[in-house]
Amino acid sequence: MPSKKESRPDAVTTALKFLASRPRSVAEVRDRLDSRGFEAKDVERAVKSLIQAGYLDDERFAEILCGSRVRYKNWGPVKIACELKVKGISEEIIHRALGSIGAAVEARTAGTALRKWAKKNGVALPVGRKDRKAVERAFRFLKGRGFSNAMIFKALDVEEGLEHEGFEHAERAHAPQFAAG
């Protein structure tokens, strides 16, 4: 009868099962294999093999994740960058992946997120300067979704002058917070 150790799948098989549900970063696969008790040399051999076979590619992973977060979650570039960083993607790859989004797509995404938020919260659009509370709530929501002040003001269709009326602090206070992984 084979021992438990002999029947255990190798690192490549374990990684392929992990990759079956969705694309992953190299760091995620390394972490998973480490957590499953594989030796460092087996982990590196498996990762190298999967990269050569085309199953692991941080560049492609970052592009897929960016597109997914924009399309399905209406996230802005700041929040996407934070998630990519947590998943072990380099700053250079993050910059290239976010560059593929483009300002027009980002503006459309911010507008979509705002419309969904307004419908859920019973706020009529466009929110104007007279309804400062609604503007502040919408601003905080979009800031938490990872959009820049300029993009938020564009989505809200309000003047940039609001930035001088107390909104400059919202950027620091309401930036998305991610725990380091």
| E-strand count | 0
Name the structural class. Answer: mainly alpha
Whole-angstrom Rg: 21 Å
What is the straight-line distance between the termini? 40 Å
Please bin the fraction of helical residues. Answer: 55-70%
Q: Sheet with the most strands?
A: none
Q: What is the string of helix and strand elements? A: HHHHHHHHHHH
Strand proportion, as a percent range, falls in under 5%
| Overall 3D form | elongated
Mean pLDDT: 85
In oligomeric terms, what are we looking at?
A: single chain
The helix count comes to 11
Low-confidence stretches: 159-166, 168-181
Describe, in plain words, how this protein is organized in 3D:
With 181 residues, the protein is mainly α. Among the domains are: 10-56, Arc Repressor Mutant, subunit A; 103-173, no CATH class. It has eleven helices and no strands. Helix 3 (26-35) runs antiparallel to helix 4 (40-53). The radius of gyration is 21 Å and the shape is elongated. It starts with a helix and ends in an 8-residue tail after the last helix. Mean pLDDT is 85; it is low at 159-166 and 168-181.
Keywords:
0% strand; disordered C terminus; 181 residues; 11 helices; single chain; Arc Repressor Mutant, subunit A; mainly alpha; elongated
Detail the topology: elements first, then pairings.
Elements lengths: L3 H4 L3 H10 L5 H10 L4 H14 L4 H16 L3 H10 L4 H9 L3 H19 L10 H13 L4 H8 L13 H4 L8
